[in-house]
Amino acid sequence: MQPRNMSMSGVVDLAAVKAAQEAKAKAEQARAEAARHGGAGGVSPADLVIDVDEARFESDVLQRSTEVPVVIDFWAEWCEPCKQLSPVLERLAVEYNGRFLLAKIDVDANQMLMQQFGVQGIPAVFAVVAGQALPLFQGAAGEAQIRQTLDQLVQVAEERFGLTGLVVDPEAEPGADRPATPERPAGPHDAALEAAVQALDAGDLAGAVRAYQNVLSDDPGNTEAKLGLAQAELLQRVQDADPQRVRQDAADKPDDAQAQIAAADLDLVGGHVDDAFGRLIDTVRRTFGDDRDAVRLRLLELFEVVGADDPRVTAARRALARALF
């Protein structure tokens, strides 16, 4: 598979550059201070490449991305191209000396993370910078292309977010700087949420919907229940759909709101996030009244499924606003 999405052009927000300079200066000062103290407080070179699972994703990726760009390598043991790409990324992580952190995620053991990032094939490489996900490339890539992408990533992280990376200390103990997995206290709805997840795993979509609705009736702001309900309802809508017929209807009736809504649901379930969003935004432009409102509401529901922090949702929200106003 040929690599794609290698370019980082357009990621830098020039309006944010000035605001980032102060953060960058502080980060550089911290690096210089650590260097003057013989690298005290630095990380071991061995900690520049880490294995990450769903339990540690927040602490190892999201939290660390506020101090250093985190490059994510989605891989699997059976994937031959992964065995070619991963050693290159690991070697470059050490060579770049703290300018980025490499997080390796086994897709077989972390299906939820794979779905959240919309990974459709491996190897797939993403970056997370200050909590924002960026697709880098998919498929085995040449080292020159990888270096170019990493150089652009490092530049974006510095110019937009002031992230100059980690101080590396060859004498540091491996694992000393890795944040502990936070202990989350048991919540009042944990049992109900677990029941909903089990219903989803068993294919009982109606049961999962009821379980999530029960949680939201008592706690309307529960983020986990909102996301779970949106996902369960989406799966329920497409459960008995005939994909070929749905797509033919959408092709034959480009101005039919319900036909486009049904096709967008299939797009999203198939992992084609941008296609789903683009289809509904185009339909908003072509419809009026109740039809337009129905399309807009479904698009907002799909935003919930993907997650408000996903950059594709952010971009689609802006496009929706332009289409509406």
The oligomeric state of the chains shown is single chain
Helix content range: 55-70%
The global form is globular
Average the pLDDT over all residues and give the rounded result: 82
Q: Sheet bearing the most strands, described? A: 5 strands, mixed
The topology string of helices and strands comes to HEHEHEHEEHHHHHHHHH
β-strand percent reads: 5-15%
Number of helices: 13
Write down the Rg. Answer: 22 Å
Overall number of strands: 5
Structural class category: alpha/beta
Name the strands of the widest sheet in spatial order.
Answer: 1-3-2-4-5
Provide a descriptive summary of the structure in words.
This protein has 325 residues and is α/β, with parallel strands linked by helices. It is built from 13 helices and five strands. A five-stranded mixed beta sheet has the order 1-3-2-4-5, sandwiched between helices. Strand 2, helix 3 and strand 3 form a beta-alpha-beta unit. Helix 11 runs parallel beside helix 13. The protein is globular, with a radius of gyration of 22 Å. The two termini are 40 Å apart. The N terminus is likely disordered.
Question: Could you give a short description of this structure?
Answer:
It is built from 13 helices and five strands.
Q: How would the blueprint of this fold be written?
A:
Elements (H helix, E strand, L loop, with lengths): L13 H23 L12 E3 L5 H7 L6 E6 L4 H16 L5 E6 L4 H6 L7 E6 L2 E7 L4 H19 L28 H12 L3 H14 L4 H16 L4 H10 L4 H13 L3 H14 L2 H18 L4 H14 L1
Parallel strand pairs: 1-3, 2-3
Antiparallel strand pairs: 2-4, 4-5
